[in-house]
Structure formats: C-alpha cells, structure tokens
Amino acid sequence: MFSVRRIGLHEGPLYRSIRLAALLDSPDAFSETFEAANGRSADDWNSRADGASAGSDRAIFIAFSDGRPVGIAALYADPESERHGVMVQVWVAPAHRGGSVAGELAACLLSWAGDCGFERVSAWFNSENWRAARLFRKLGFELTNETQPLRPGSDLVCRQVTRLV
Ligand SMILES: CC(C)(COP(=O)(O)OP(=O)(O)OC[C@H]1O[C@@H](n2cnc3c(N)ncnc32)[C@H](O)[C@@H]1OP(=O)(O)O)[C@@H](O)C(=O)NCCC(=O)NCCS
Prior knowledge:
The structure is a single chain. This protein is α+β, with helices and mostly antiparallel strands and 165 residues long. It has a single domain, classed as 3-Layer(aba) Sandwich (Aminopeptidase). The chain is 32% helix and 35% strand. It has helices at residues 12-25, 34-38, 42-51, 101-115, 130-138; strands at residues 3-6, 58-65, 68-78, 81-92, 120-126, 142-149, 157-164.
C-alpha cells in the first residue's frame, strides 16, 4: 500500500533525501548531477519545497510506503508558455518499480495540472531509457521530433514526449 501527496511547507529535508536518492540511483536519467544537488544549502532545499507546496505554477508530489518516501514527480510551468507544463524528476525506488507508484504519481500531477489550467504537459527522457519510454507511452504521451543532450557536453540524447492534459 502506498499514498501520494503534494510536498508541504518546510519539507526541504524530505525533498533533499528523495531527490538525492534518485540522482544516486539513476545518474543518466536526469540532467542535474548528484554533486550539484548535494551542494545545495538546507535553505535552498526548503525554498524549493515551499515553492512547490502551494500555488499553480509548480508542484512536487511524493509517494510514500509505510511512511517512507518511495517515489517523486514534479511539474513546472514552461517559462515560455504558462499553459504548458514540464514533468521532471520522475523516479520510483527500485523495490517499488513495476507496480502502480509511477502511474499514480503521474495521475496526481496531471490531475493537479488540469485543475491549474495547464493544457499540455511534456517531458524529456534519455533515449536509452526504455523503461521511461514505456511508462510515458502507457500514460498517453507521444514522441515529438525534439531532442537535446542530457546535459551540456553529454553524448546522451534525450527525446521529448508530450500529451494534452
Ligand atoms: C521510469 C520509472 C519512474 C518508471 O517506473 P516503473 O515503476 O518502473 O514503471 P512501470 O513499471 O509502471 O512502467 C515501466 C514500463 O517499462 C517496462 N520495463 C520494465 N523493465 C524494463 C526494461 N528493463 N526494459 C524495458 N522496459 C522495461 C515495464 O514492463 C513497463 O511497461 P509495460 O507496463 O508496458 O509493461 C522508474 O523505472 C524509475 O524511477 N527509473 C529510474 C529513473 C528514471 O528513469 N526516471 C525517468 C526520467 S525521464
């Protein structure tokens, strides 16, 4: 059994622990590196958590099992189009993969996005990440022709997927 909820005020330590776990586990799934995230101050983590805990331009949702965080997904408004969201930081702890955690996190984010007036949500995934590709296809996302490097200087290529909310 697991539950999903939006991150709350002053939950920087929670955000830090699950985000660092994700970056350690899956360094090639995210553009941010563990080292960069690990260098952030406690105030920075708190301010990011606070900013995603309320309002309609960003949100972080966390999945819990037995009170422990086991999954995360975030959505940010695209700075170039406020009705367009970008889903990022999607991660499920290895022991909880293959169940419904990823789908439930995405469902919560998309429901929130719909309530906030987002019309379209996009995401980027490393083109070698077949598990993420299959998850997004299962969720109704479609591939676009857009690509970009995982991070500046990386040979790894990310593909974009998108769907209406
Ligand atoms: C991507 C992620 C969140 C998906 O969560 P999950 O619990 O694994 O997702 P699901 O099991 O619901 O769906 C994954 C799909 O990949 C399939 N899959 C599982 N293992 C696979 C493998 N080794 N190769 C290819 N596909 C695989 C599953 O069968 C499933 O597809 P199906 O339902 O059509 O059969 C999770 O795997 C994860 O955290 N990965 C590391 C971080 C990451 O890649 N994040 C995404 C960044 S864009």
